């Protein structure tokens, strides 16, 4: 027998129906709270433009700003976009330092601390993309290049 969920107490429903209700409720609550699942690949991600030089996906500053929570944290270093979500708890300075720059450019703070060559090398593991040419600050022939670190 099928009943509308609103008319039947939960204890009378089949376990499959209860799981379905819980799943729908969790999805609604997550959406209402603004949770974004980083593992979901959208159609936009599949069609994302790539940088001609580096072949990295291009993310705008506005797109990076959407990744500013503990469970989905991106930062920008030297015009490159890094997903540091998995590194949050491992960061020697604590996750609050990364959260201060979540969704924004952290280049000045990164450079000011004087990270080691090993720390700079470990960044490649978290690299997800690059800024568009018109939004880049550290590109071209300026003094702030990776080679000058």
Fold and architecture overview:
This protein is of the alpha+beta class and 149 residues long. It has two domains: 1-35; 43-133, Cytochrome b5-like heme/steroid binding domain (Flavocytochrome B2, Chain A, domain 1, Roll). 32% of the residues lie in helices and 11% in strands. The chain contains six helices and four strands; from the N terminus they run H-H-H-E-E-E-H-H-H-E. It has helices at 15-33, 43-46, 61-65, 95-100, 107-113, 117-122, and strands at residues 68-69, 72-77, 80-83, 127-130. A four-stranded antiparallel beta sheet has the order 1-2-3-4. The model has no long low-confidence stretch (mean pLDDT 78).
**Count of individual beta strands:** 4
Please provide the ordered H/E string of secondary-structure elements. HHHEEEHHHE
Work out the count of structural domains.
2
- The amount of beta strand, in percent, is 5-15%
Distance between the termini: 70 Å
Radius of gyration: 21 Å
Helix content: 25-40%
- Which structural class fits the helix and strand makeup? alpha+beta
Q: Can I get a quick summary?
A:
This protein folds into two domains: 1-35; 43-133, Flavocytochrome B2, Chain A, domain 1, CATH 3.10.120. 32% of the residues lie in helices and 11% in strands.
How does the SSE layout of this entry go?
Blueprint: H1 15-33, H2 43-46, H3 61-65, E1 68-69, E2 72-77, E3 80-83, H4 95-100, H5 107-113, H6 117-122, E4 127-130
Antiparallel strand pairs: 1-2, 2-3, 3-4
Give descriptors for this structure.
149 residues; alpha+beta; Flavocytochrome B2, Chain A, domain 1; four-stranded antiparallel sheet; 6 helices; elongated
